[in-house]
Amino acid sequence: MAAGAGRGKAAGKKATSRSSKAGLQFPVGRIARFLKSGKYAERVGAGAPVYLAAVLEYLAAEVLELAGNAARDNKKNRIVPRHIQLAVRNDEELSKLLGHVTIANGGVLPNIHSVLLPTKKTTGCNVPFYVFAQDNYVVKP
């Protein structure tokens, strides 16, 4: 009998994790343990932790891809919470999913209300005038 092989096990057979069987990076065994110890239900099926691990891995990959794009747009090599915030809030579905979530050190989306922006007007002599929408104050350039 080979070392490491117990009763009923074939000699020399290496153990494979459920994560590798499912082709996932997230730990299926750990998620199964959390589901069982968390008392979410009396019993947990065999496929439930695999499915949950796949969903969590997909969401993490989606957020990381968008955050990486946001970091590259800002000419940075490292993803910081600001990039995660920009990625989540600019994506419609992720923003809806994480609508009530606060990301620490994330900041806010850059947004200037259209009323506060100067409106450009042209006169008959093709000289641009800038009229501010609130109090009609005219400034010549």
UniProtKB/TrEMBL annotation:
Predominant location category: nucleus
Pfam family, any one: Histone_H2A_C
InterPro entries tied to this protein: H2A/H2B/H3, Histone-fold, Histone_H2A, Histone_H2A_C, Histone_H2A_CS
Signal peptide limits: none
Domain Core Histone H2A/H2B/H3: 13-89
Location(s) in or outside the cell: Chromosome; Nucleus
Every Histone H2A C-terminal domain range: 92-122
GO cellular component, one term: nucleosome
One GO MF term: protein heterodimerization activity
Superkingdom of source: Eukaryota
Keyword check for Nucleus: yes
Keyword entries, A-Z: Chromosome, DNA-binding, Nucleosome core, Nucleus
PROSITE patterns found in the cross-reference section: HISTONE_H2A (PS00046)
Subunit structure: The nucleosome is a histone octamer containing two molecules each of H2A, H2B, H3 and H4 assembled in one H3-H4 heterotetramer and two H2A-H2B heterodimers. The octamer wraps approximately 147 bp of DNA.
Family recorded in the similarity comment: Belongs to the histone H2A family.
Protein name: Histone H2A
Organism: Adiantum capillus-veneris (Maidenhair fern)
Lineage: Eukaryota, Viridiplantae, Streptophyta, Embryophyta, Tracheophyta
